Amino acid sequence: MSSTKPKVYNFGAGPAAIPLNVLEKAQKDLLNYENTGMSVMEISHRSKTFDNLLNKAKQDLKTLLQVPENYKILFMQGGGLTQFSAIVYNLLAAKRQQVPGEEFNPPLDYFVTGSWSAKAADEAKRLYNNVNIVIDVKKSKGSFESIPPKEEWKLSGSKAAFVYYCDNETINGVEFPFIPEVDPSVPLVCDMSSNILSRKFDVSKFGVIYAGAQKNIGTPGVTVVIVRDDLLTKPKSVNDQDKGVPVVPVMLSYKIIADHNSVYNTPPMFPIYISGLVFEWLLDQGGVEAIEKINNEKSTKIYDLIDKSKIYRSPIEKPYRSRMNAPFRIVPEELEKEFLTGAEELGMVQLKGHRSVGGIRISMYNAITLDAIDLLINYMIEFEKKHN
Ligand code: PMP
């Protein structure tokens, strides 16, 4: 059999590189999963075999992130974007339980620190009429380049139904170096699509954490949601619904998905299976703490090179630079095309910046090895020598 060693180094932002061990295991399992004589994509989602697979994946994620007992781990569909809506529905319903009575119009607080949180805030505004922007960095600074200090935040305090932020802005390369401090009675909601499992953090600070799988977890098609028990509310129908509280569609209801152990309908079985393999792989690497050290080393090497260079420029202020996605420009910009072509010739692919910002972007998720980063660094040094 020919080797499955990939022929390229994939620096894509997502769908992104998957650890080679995981791909090889999936290849082995593809035709005959656990002696069922069938592929994992063919077994019944109600079978004991799938139940075991799902529960093992959940348990391993729980171990990796030290998820407390009062949280549920859900595997949902619809990607990160579906969660932009799901959080609004679920958390307004949860807030309603705390604030009964006639008047109900709590603000939803959004930090806008990049393109994805901007998009999430836009969806909230589309669904609901009281969205409060805590900060909008593009408006205040002209571009998404930092996170302003606490004194500039306009939080709504205990009135808010939730406070939302995106921990790592995949397109702009801005990452929170801290967890924002908010009123302890208000659930903190976090989009960790592009940095979950890349560093240690305290789950108990959050009401809801979600992450699309296609970066640090596995393949597109499943979204991991970690939600605190007190935020699970039974969805009502329009006949018994409170005025001002939108009805939660069943497939978006955290309570329904949790009560059915993520198998309310046919779940995305293959993506869940791959996620499980990635969790096992990460545990074998020594878990989140061990990978965090490597991630820090990788991104430090990249940013050190950029800062020393005369032709590479990072647009992001140092404390807020993402350890996962490093967007940068080459001066003059005409060199960017040549840079990408040269990288591709050496087997380093998907380095093009997002179409909305241009330039180059190095995505260095957990599956990107230090060797791959060293190869890229050598190329960047040689490229600069040629053009300096
Ligand atoms: N949030 C972040 C931080 C993302 O990077 C992305 C996608 N790259 C999304 C949300 C949207 O995810 P999806 O495409 O799975 O809907």
TrEMBL record:
It catalyses: 4-(phosphooxy)-L-threonine + 2-oxoglutarate = (R)-3-hydroxy-2-oxo-4-phosphooxybutanoate + L-glutamate; O-phospho-L-serine + 2-oxoglutarate = 3-phosphooxypyruvate + L-glutamate. Residues 8-376 form the Aminotransferase class V domain. Keywords: Amino-acid biosynthesis, Aminotransferase, Pyridoxal phosphate, Serine biosynthesis, Transferase. This is Phosphoserine aminotransferase. GO terms for molecular function: O-phospho-L-serine:2-oxoglutarate aminotransferase activity; pyridoxal phosphate binding. It comes from Funneliformis mosseae (Endomycorrhizal fungus). Its cofactor is pyridoxal 5'-phosphate. Belongs to the class-V pyridoxal-phosphate-dependent aminotransferase family. SerC subfamily. One of its GO terms (cellular component) is cytoplasm. Pathway: Amino-acid biosynthesis; L-serine biosynthesis; L-serine from 3-phospho-D-glycerate: step 2/3. InterPro entries: Aminotrans_V_dom, Aminotrans_V_PyrdxlP_BS, Pser_aminoTfrase, PyrdxlP-dep_Trfase, PyrdxlP-dep_Trfase_major, PyrdxlP-dep_Trfase_small. It holds the Pfam family Aminotran_5. Its EC number is 2.6.1.52. One of its GO terms (biological process) is L-serine biosynthetic process.
